[in-house]
Amino acid sequence: MRNALKKYLISTGVLLFSLTALADPSQCTEVTDNLVDNCGWETGCWHAWRINDSIVAVGDGVIAHSGDWGGIVHPHVDIEYMGQGVSTVVGQAYTLSFWVRNLQSLDRFQVLWIDGDVVQYPLDLQNVPAEEYTQFVIPDLIATSDGMEIYWGLGNSLGDINFDDVVLAPQ
Predict the structure, then answer these.
(1) Whether 85 contacts 146, CB under 8 Å
(2) pLDDT digit string (tens) for 111-152?
């Protein structure tokens, strides 16, 4: 019985590995110097992201800009934040790019570049009209420490926001 169970487990592992190899990669995973972990949600979860679990999900199919998965931020009244810390080099300039789709207008849409208590807002928009997937590119983010944080502040009381293909790379 033990040999049969062992063979089953090995076969299952090989099958799961094979299915993962067949998955479409996100565009962001193809960027070799991308500092964002789980940049296209291809893990099928919010691994590496700091989030409010009650307002986010991961979706496949039409949610994804590229690859098989994308992040979803559900409607909420207050500004909610999602992001992660990244290892940076002091004085180095970085470019941030990401894709967003909002099928309802957004109340607030921010990008925060954070070094400890110092917060910069390289993007701060209000009343953003509904749009299909749109790429945002923010160049010249200068690291002031060896560990910066990149966050999005989102206020969307009307509908979901889809995120995908987040890249933060040295210029």
Answers:
(1) no
(2) 999 999 999 999 999 999 999 999 999 999 999 999 999 999
Domain 26-170 has CATH 2.30.40.10: no
The candidate with the shortest Cα–Cα distance to 125, out of 153, 98, 99, is: 153
Closest CA to 151 of 160, 141, 159: 141
Number of H helices, E strands in the chain: 1, 9
- Which DSSP category does 50 fall into? B
Please tell me the predicted confidence (pLDDT) of residue 18. 38
Q: Where are the domains of the chain?
A: 26-170
Q: What is the pTM of this model?
A: 0.83
| CA separation, residue 66 to residues 9, 17, 115 (Å) | 31, 20, 30
Residue 28: other Cβ atoms inside 10 A: 25
Q: CA angle at residue 84 from 78 to 57, to 5 degrees?
A: 55
Strand, coil or helix: what is 64? Answer: coil
